[in-house]
Structures are given as structure tokens and as C-alpha cells.
Design goal:
alpha+beta, 4-stranded antiparallel β-sheet, 6 helices
């Protein structure tokens, strides 16, 4: 099935209940992403870019947000598409970070300030790739080095604000 997308969003609508009124954040949005494609979502502040991404990742805060229409299908295995909106919390957690990831636009809120940078990246490798603590640390240091971060050992033990 070479024409099967990796991600298919069909007629997605998302509303927010705010101060006794409804804000329509996303209205009937549809798009597909195929293997090897890069999709950029652009628009004015408040146009629904982040809300759409949060829906895909299963991170939409409910309440106040609510998906009122549409579907989000992930075709990691084309023989068995997954409706991301129907998954239980544990099921989406198994996919999130391993098969589908998001780079948050605000770095100060993306990392937890009470854990070191190394700990937070290691945790992902331990959870999804079943690395031991030692393997995860070695891998994180390699990754930090690969993206040319300075003083990787110091950075590993630093907190995000540092």
C-alpha cells in the first residue's frame, strides 16, 4: 500500500469551553502525511496549530478542550491502522515518544525544572527502548555530542534553567 499515509486527520474539530462560552479552536481540519514527507503547519497565533498537535499526541487538556468531530488515524502498521482518539491512556503512552513525537515550541515549559536534562532524556530511552540506566546515560551523552551541545557531561547533570 504505497499510497497509505502514516497519519490521516479527517474533519477534526476542537472546541474549548471558556467563561460560559465555546471557542472553536479547530474546525473541520483534514490532512495526510506520507512516509518521507515533511509537513509544516503555519498560521497566526491562536489559529489551532498547537491544539492540532496536542490532539495527535493525546495531550489535549480535557476539560476545557473537547474534540467534537473527526478522526486521527496512525498507520505505523498499514495493515492495522490505529484510531488515536480511541486509545486508552496507556496505549497512547506506548506510542507517544517512540513512534510519534512532538518538539514543543517553548523550551522552558517542555522540560521539567526539577529534573536534570540528562535524567529527562534518559527516562525516554529507558521507557521506550528498555535501556538500563547506564545504557541510557551513554546513549544520551552520544546524542548530546551528535547535536554538538557543549560540555555534554556537565549538561547531562544540569537543570533546564542552567
Amino acid at each position: 500500500m504505497p499510497d497509505t499515509p502514516l497519519l490521516n486527520i479527517n474533519n477534526l474539530s476542537v472546541d474549548f469551553a471558556i467563561h460560559n462560552s465555546i471557542v472553536h479552536a479547530v474546525k473541520n481540519l483534514s490532512f495526510q502525511v506520507h512516509a518521507g514527507e515533511t509537513l509544516g503547519i503555519v498560521g497566526e497565533s491562536g489559529s489551532g496549530k498547537s491544539v492540532t498537535s496536542l490532539c495527535i499526541m493525546g495531550l489535549l487538556p480535557t476539560p476545557p478542550g473537547k474534540i467534537t468531530n473527526g478522526s486521527i488515524h496512525y498507520f505505523g502498521n498499514p495493515e492495522k491502522p490505529i484510531d488515536l482518539l480511541q486509545l486508552k491512556r496507556k496505549e497512547i503512552q506506548a506510542i507517544r515518544g517512540k513512534e510519534i513525537s512532538m518538539i514543543f515550541q517553548e523550551p522552558m515549559s517542555a522540560l521539567n525544572p526539577v529534573y536534570t536534562c540528562g535524567h529527562q532524556v534518559s527516562e525516554i530511552l529507558q521507557q521506550h527502548l528498555h535501556h538500563t540506566k547506564k545504557e541510557a546515560k551513554e546513549n544520551v551523552l552520544e546524542l548530546f555530542n551528535e547535536v554538538k551541545l557543549p560540555r555534554i557531561h556537565e549538561l547531562f547533570n544540569s537543570y533546564p534553567h542552567q
